[in-house]
Every structure is written in C-alpha cells, then in structure tokens.
C-alpha cells in the first residue's frame, strides 16, 4: 500500500488540473473556485495547452473569466496554436468576454501561428458584434495571415458578406442586424457556439475554403 503513495502524489497535479478544467468547461464558478482552493492553479494546461481562461473565453463564461483574471490568470497565455484567449473569444463571438479581456490588457492584434488576429477569427465565423467591438478598439484591418489575406478577405472567402462589408467600411454598424442568440455571454455558449469540449479556435490542420486553398491562390 505504501508503494502506491509516490504514484498518488505524482498524479495529484494532473488530477487538480483536470478539476479546474472540468469546472471551467461546465461553467461552474463555485467548482472552479473550489478547485483552486484545493491546490489547482489558473495556469493549468490541458491537452490543447488551453489554460482555464482559454476555455471560458472560448465557451463564453464571462463571469468565470473575470474571476480567473482576478486570480492572476495570464491574459496573453498561448495555446497549442499560439492563440490567446482574446482570439478564441472573438472566434466564438463572445463580445462580453472580448471587452473584458481588452480591459485587462489583452493585445488586440496578437497573432497565432497562422498569423491570424482576433479580427481574422471573428471574420472567419462572421460574428458581426465581435467585429464591431474589435473595430471600436482599433484592431488592424490590414494585417494579413499566412495566406496573405486580410480579415475582410477572410470573411468574404467564408461567405460572410455582411462581415466583409463591415470590414471594408461599406456598411455602418448601426445598420447591421444583431446576430441571433439564445443565451447571453454571461449565461454561456450561444446557439452558434460549438458544444463544450469542441473548441472553435484550435486548428492544427487549418481548414480553408476552396478559394483559399494554396494551389488555387494566384501568385
């Protein structure tokens, strides 16, 4: 029995990390708080190199994001694709989280390993409110990703014509229809978000529309 003690002690950090991430994924603030009191940290990483802040930013739990930031979570932490929490929140359309992260000093034009910015992430998914928020904070519309595409070109390639028009300055924000959602950012993922545990931002094999495939790009 004593021989098992070292094994149990060695596995404790993994168990604590799992508790923090499971609670964050469930949107359970009380469970997140308890996991931290039990020895978990705000810097725990999962298999995608997500921190808890990545997780709740991607899933839209703004109240937990605020709590984690108050506990010292790194607003500029990078996941397996070098994406920050801001990029994930933008790609999932969680405007309240986007605003929160920017208030806490998130770099608005931080790039992932594919040279995609938060504006690229929002443009790829056609999230108009997130695009508007990023533009209000002066996000660059001229940054190009690894394929040489601006956010407007990314939006157009994915068929998001209103997003492309907004990014090109051809449509006033006040004239844009509000995206439909069933839940607020505080309540959790909206109807357009991926199910918990299926992060939108992770793209180790980057998916591209046909008109952006490398062999179809003009040199």
Automatic annotation (TrEMBL):
Give start and end residues of every ANK repeat.
Answer: 48-80, 81-113, 114-146
Q: Specify the superkingdom.
A: Eukaryota
GO CC list? nucleus
Position of the signal peptide: 1-17
* Entry protein name: Ankyrin repeat domain-containing protein
Q: Which InterPro entries match?
A: Ank_Repeat/CDKN_Inhibitor, Ankyrin_rpt, Ankyrin_rpt-contain_sf
Residue numbers spanned by region Disordered: 175-219
Keywords for this protein: ANK repeat, Repeat, Signal
Record's compositionally biased regions (Basic and acidic residues): 207-219
**Which PANTHER family does the entry mention?**
ANK_REP_REGION DOMAIN-CONTAINING PROTEIN (PTHR24201), ANKYRIN-1-LIKE-RELATED (PTHR24201:SF16)
